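[Q] Does anyone have a clean structure-token version of this?
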Amino acid sequence: MANDSWVFNVGPIVPGAQATPTPIAYIPGIVGPAGNTGPTGNTGAQGIQGVTGPTGNTGAQGIQGVTGPTGNTGNTGPTGNTGPTGNTGPTGNTGPTGNTGNTGSQGLQGIPGLAGEDGDDSLVSLGPRFNGILPARGFFSIKIQFFITTGTYTPTPGMVFCIADCVGGGAGAGGAASTVGTAFGGGGGGAGGYAQAVLTAAQIGASQVATVGAAGTAGNSTTNGGNGGTTSLGSLLAAAGGNGGTFSSNGNVGTGGTFGSGITGDVKLTGDSGGPGTYSPSAGSPVITGFGGASVMGGGGTSVFAFNNAPNGNTGGQYGGGGSGGGASNTVGTSNGGAGNLGAIRIIEFISQ
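[A] Here you go.
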């Protein structure tokens, strides 16, 4: 047992008065050694049975027993429905051809046909070089080959003869310049010439070089239009290009370019010259520029109308056509002429097979 102690404060001692002690500290005593363990008590009664635990895993399968004897065979079941019809098999080989029947009796003679029209003997006019080469039963087909770029003409097999024609390149036109109070129109470019020839297969041979004349370049307010190039089919056919129109400015009136001519062929024709340029010194006057010359294959560039502006000319309209002049009216401005159009070669072949 511990020897515990308390410390009290009794305060000042007053004679004749009762002192009331006040505890101010607790001093625990020292704990003594533990006593010996008493004897074991009797065993208590058995507690309530706990909840049953979960079922354990199934053990391994045992060895299979001996197979029993086979049972008696059962009765036969009813017959099933008939299945669908199968696909038809392939057709057999064709049998041998039968014997030809007897020839029938000849029919009655038909009514005589009407007499045919007189034949066209115009091919005779092609000349003695065609004697013996024209097919007796006419031509099987006609084919056209057309060139707008330089290349090689190779005849179609069976060609007997051909009609070839061509135009030279169209020329460019002049431009114009004006100031306030003046008006100018450039001259139009001339058209390319035309040529045509009827040529046999022997003349053509294996091939011929087809040269297409270039288009003349457009002029401006200080330069004339360029000339068109010459178009040719070897040495058998040729047509010259047109000549360029001149510019108009500073009192110089543009002139139209002259035409090109056919050079080689059975038929040789010229194109048209370009229209002349124009000039007006009057303030506020309009002008119409020179037109482009027309070729056998088509028209040239159309004129332009200038009034208080400076429009450029038009390009040649069709193959071989010349360009039209540029205009400038009552304005401080310049214009360009129109370029010409390039040449072309057309070959119509008459084929016997």
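[Q] Thanks! Anything notable?
[A] The longest strand covers residues 159-167.
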